[in-house]
Design a protein that fits this description.
Layout lengths: L3 H9 L7 E5 L12 E2 L9 E2 L3 E4 L9 E9 L13 E5 L11 E4 L3 E4 L2 E4 L9 E2 L10 E3 L7 H9 L4 E5 L3 E7 L3 E2 L10 E2 L2 H11 L3 E8 L3 H8 L7 E5 L10 H7 L2 E6 L3 E2 L5 E5 L2 E6 L3 H20 L8 E6 L10 E10 L5 E5 L8 H6 L2 E5 L11 E6 L8
Parallel strand pairs: 5-6, 13-16, 13-17, 14-15, 17-21, 19-23, 22-24
Antiparallel strand pairs: 1-12, 2-11, 3-10, 4-6, 4-7, 5-9, 8-9, 18-20, 20-21, 22-26, 23-24, 23-25, 25-26
Length: 404
């Protein structure tokens, strides 16, 4: 049975960044840049005013009070075309270009206007309230690097850079196959021995927030014919994820059927809890990740292995597990032979430190607890008992716009 680190390494070696596509800037939120983004203009393009007031020559306002003659006005989008000479000033508004000859701004609160005569009550140092050309960025400057997941702020920055189109990684197509006669979709009629299939819908949501395109193949019945027929829908996918049917029971047919279809199995079983019956291999040129059937096992293995594969395919610099530490909020007994991922809530103390409080129930069927979890507390195999206040490694639940 592989360790988590060994399984992680084998899974990552089976993936590479996928192809690119161009999208409109308006469709860029949450996408991953495949190329650097370079400013197409200088911002601001010229010296502009940061305040409403009067554009003056600094030499004219070194001694105040002084009266200057207003010779024009400069507005954003409609600047003053003349030159400010000695004893002159131009009325100026925020964002308007600084007129030629002027080199500082006197804010309107310290002035009094009487027709074209403007009384300046306070001096203004050279460059006061002036935003120089290129203060924000200059044409040709790389402001966003490939591998960046675009935020709303990044979209605004691209717009300021005059970039209407973006080259991004194509969304990985992830085919999802659930198995089992015992599962039905939410809202469908249920037999006395059946359960609701939450896994396929949850997994599709995980794929979505991780930046992929989920392709739900439906639920294969516990027959080889049904499984073979449903598997055919995975053609063209960048990744096939199966749910359940990966164990050793009489009706766990995933390995058997995919083996007959040419599955090259890399590993089966990982020393982790939950998530032990995890499969990784290739079906032709399609990587296959076989997840256990318990809903929390699906969530934990997705947070670890699915997230890592998505990061690689999308060319994201982070790869998988971004671990942190927190104080432990509950005493824990000695751990068993498998690496444990305990569902826990995070509490911020008065000192700003994070405390991870594992739930008292850790059964892999308890989806309500998993939904409330902020993180996973990671315990190494055979870890000694841990006490309240001891620092432990945690993995936060993360994802896209909606969160993991």
């Amino acid at each position: 049975m592989l360790s988590v680190d060994e399984a992680f390494e084998k899974v990552l070696s089976g993936f590479a960044p996928i192809g690119c596509e161009s999208v409109a800037l308006s469709d860029g939120l949450g996408r991953v840049l495949a190329e650097d983004v370079t400013a197409r203009l200088t911002q601001p393009p010229t010296d502009v005013s940061a305040m409403d007031g009067y554009a003056v020559r600094g030499a004219d306002v070194t001694e105040v009070p002084v009266t200057l003659t207003r010779v024009g006005e400069s507005q954003a989008g409609c600047g003053f075309e003349g030159t400010v000479s000695a004893g002159e000033t131009v009325r100026i508004f925020t964002g308007a270009p600084l007129p030629e000859g002027a080199n500082t701004i006197v804010i309107q609160e310290v002035t009094e206007a009487d027709g074209d005569q403007v009384l300046i009550k306070e001096s203004a140092p050279f460059g006061d309230f002036v935003r120089p050309a290129g203060l924000d960025f200059r044409a040709g400057e790389v402001l966003l690097k490939a591998g960046k997941v675009l935020s709303a702020r990044d979209i605004g920055l691209c717009a300021s850079m005059n970039v209407p189109w973006l080259t991004v990684r194509r969304k990985p197509r992830v085919a999802i196959l659930a198995t089992g006669d015992e599962v039905v979709m939410p809202g469908d009629p249920m037999g006395p021995d059946q359960i609701i299939s939450s896994n396929s819908l949850a997994l599709a949501a995980y794929v979505d927030v991780m930046g992929g395109l989920p392709v739900n193949l439906g639920i294969a019945r516990d027959t080889m014919e049904s499984l073979r027929e449903t598997l055919a829908g995975a053609k063209g996918a960048d990744l096939l994820v199966t749910i359940g049917g990966a164990s050793v029971g009489e009706y766990d047919l995933v390995q058997k059927v995919m083996g007959e279809e040419g599955l090259e199995l890399n590993f089966y079983k990982v020393a982790m809890r939950p998530g032990k019956p995890l499969i990784f291999g290739h079906l032709g040129d399609i990587p296959v990740l076989g997840l256990p059937g318990n809903p929390v096992s699906v969530g934990v293995t997705s947070a670890l292995f699915l997230q890592a594969t998505m990061d690689v395919m999308l060319g994201i610099e982070r790869i998988g597990r971004a671990l942190e530490t927190a104080r432990l909020g509950r005493d824990l007994p000695k751990n068993g032979p498998r690496q444990d991922y305990m569902r826990a809530q995070l509490i911020t103390g008065e000192d700003g430190e994070l405390t991870a409080l594992p739930f008292d129930g850790q059964d892999s069927s308890m989806m309500a607890r998993f939904a409330k979890a902020d993180c996973l507390v990671i315990r190494a195999p055979h870890a000694e008992p841990a006490s309240v206040g001891q620092r432990v490694e945690i993995l936060r639940m993360r994802g896209g716009r909606a969160g993991f």
